[in-house]
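LOG
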Amino acid sequence: MSDQPVLFEKEGAVGTITLNRPHRLNTVVPELIDSLNQALDEAEADDEVHAVRLRGAGSSFCAGYDIGWGAEVMARNEGDEPWDPMLDLKFMRRYVDTYMRLWRSVKPVIAQVQGFCLGGGSDMALCSDLIVCADDCRIGYPPARVWGSPTTAMWTYRLGLERSKRMLLTGDPIDGPTAVDWGLASDSVQAADLDSTGAELAARVARLPANQLMMMKGLVNSIYEQMGMSSTQLIGTMMDGSARHTPEGTRFSNKVMEDLPGTIVERDGPFGDYAQGDRTAR
C-alpha cells in the first residue's frame, strides 16, 4: 500500500478511509491526524459519497496513541517547566476535534474494527455512527489503568452507566460478540468476513438519499448532545492531561522512554489481557 498514513478511495456512493500505519498498529501520531482530516475533507466535499467506511490496514484497527511518541512529546515540551493544563488542553483539542468530526460529519461513518481498538482508536470507533467488528477483536481503554482518561467520553453515551464503569474501572477489553451483546456494535463476524461485511453495510446505508441520511443522523445525535456531551468532553480531556501528570502517570512516561515493551507488560501483565497473557476478553 501507499506510505501515506491515511488513504481515501471511492466506490459508488461509499468513500473508504483506511488508517495506514500497519507496522505500528495504526497508532495515532500527528501525521495520521492531519491525513485523516484531509480524507474527511475529501469525503465530505464529494456529493457522490453518501456514506464513509473507516478501517485500519493490517492486523488492527487502531491500537491507540503511539505511546513512545507521547512520552517523547511530554519530555520535549515540558522539561523542567511547570505543567500548564490549558496548554495541554489546547494540544489535545487537535485530536479530540478530529475524532468528533466523525460524529459531526453529515455523512454516516461505519467503523470496521479488527484486532486492537484501544485508547484513541476506541475514540475513533465510538465517534463513528455504526461499528462492525471481528469476533476476535479487542476493544478497550487500557489507559484507564494509568496515564489517560477518555477525552471524547463516548463510553457512557454508547454503553450506559454500568457497562462504561465496568470498562473504565478495570481497563478490561471486550471482544466482538460482547460488543454486539452490549449494544456497542451492529455486527460481529469472523475476521475473514469483516471487510465484506463492512462494505455491504456501508453500501446499504449509502442507498438512502444524502439529505435523508443527514436528517436521520442529526436527529439521533441531537438527543445525545443535549445530555451535555461538550461539557463532558471538556472534563474528560482535562482529566486526560491530569492523568498523565499524576505521580503514577509521570513514572509511567519516564519508564516508557527507557523500556516501552516492558512498561506495557508491567501495566497489563497482572490483568492478563491485550498483548499479555491469554487475551481473554471480559
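LOG (cont.) second protein
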Amino acid sequence: MLTTSKVKSTSIPAVTHVDNTARVQVIDQEDPLLSAILSRIKSRGFAPVIINTSFNCAGEPLVETLTDAARSFRKLNLDYLLTEPGLFRLATP
C-alpha cells in the first residue's frame, strides 16, 4: 500500500521530499522476505527502510537495469543492494 506521510524525523533524509513528506510503501507480513529484512534492520537500531527499484540519483532517469542499479548504488553510497542475483554490500576502501 502506498501512502503519503509527513516526515517527523531527520534520521532518513533521503526519503524526505521538499514539502516535508515521504511516499511510503507499507509492507506487511504477507511478504515474508521483506518483512524479515525490515525486522532485522530495525532490531539492529536502524530505521527499517528499503529504497525500491525506482531509486535514482537526482537528474537521472529511474533505475531499469542491474547496471543502472549498480551505478546508483555506488553514487548514492548505499550500504546494501538487493537484486534478483543477490545481496550486495558497498565495499569500504
